[in-house]
Specification:
It is built from four helices and twelve strands. The chain has 180 residues and is an alpha/beta fold. The chain has one domain: TIM Barrel, CATH 3.20.20. Strands 1, 2, 3, 4, 5, 6, 7, 8, 9, 10, 11 and 12 form a twelve-stranded mixed β-sheet that branches.
């Protein structure tokens, strides 16, 4: 069973050989049960929060316009939208303007990062974002474990701070089912 923390989301906990594991589950682009057509849609992002998950979103900035979308900006948002969700968002800056925009504002807690195939990326909140399949470290974020996780590497998840997945419902259920 999950434990609520600020923002109303849940930390999923279970006993292990090393004690209690607390794990944040991050929805990748707002997906709940696999990749979908509403990726990065603001309403889908809010649905993820209501379901108890953090959410990774893709942000584009063009001039003074903020847009969510993976390959290009599709959904118009504003800074207030980001700030209202700052405790639960993981913002992947998709262009240099997005990175510059968020980096210029020092009065927010928005967790953001930029990468392009890097094995490891440090977020603005000092979390290590680990590209799928690469070695995890204590406190890191395992990205898309459904692409690489197997029985031989399953113990690595216990070292993570969070996982970012297209299947947060599946991992939530597996995590709860493994609780003694």
């Amino acid at each position: 069973m999950g434990v609520r923390y600020s923002g109303g989301l849940e930390l999923f906990s279970r006993e292990s050989q090393v004690g209690v594991i607390l794990l944040r589950i991050i929805s990748h682009r707002g997906n709940i049960s696999g990749p979908g057509q509403r990726e990065n849609h603001p309403e889908q992002i809010d649905f993820c929060f209501e379901s108890g998950f953090d959410c990774e979103v893709d942000l584009w900035v063009k001039g003074d316009t903020l847009l969510l979308g993976h390959d290009f900006g599709e959904y118009l948002i504003n800074l207030k939208w980001l700030r209202d969700r700052e405790n639960s968002l993981w913002v992947h800056c998709k262009n240099g303007d997005a990175l510059t925009y968020l980096n210029e504002f020092k009065d927010h807690k928005i967790n953001f990062f930029w990468h392009e195939g890097d094995k490891y990326t440090l977020t603005s909140s000092n979390n290590v974002w680990v590209y799928p399949g690469h070695q995890l470290s204590p406190g890191s974020v395992a990205v898309l474990p459904e692409l690489w996780l197997n029985e031989d590497r399953s113990s690595e998840i216990s070292r993570c701070f969070a996982i970012c997945t297209d299947y947060p419902e599946k991992y939530k259920k597996e995590f709860e089912d493994s609780t003694p």
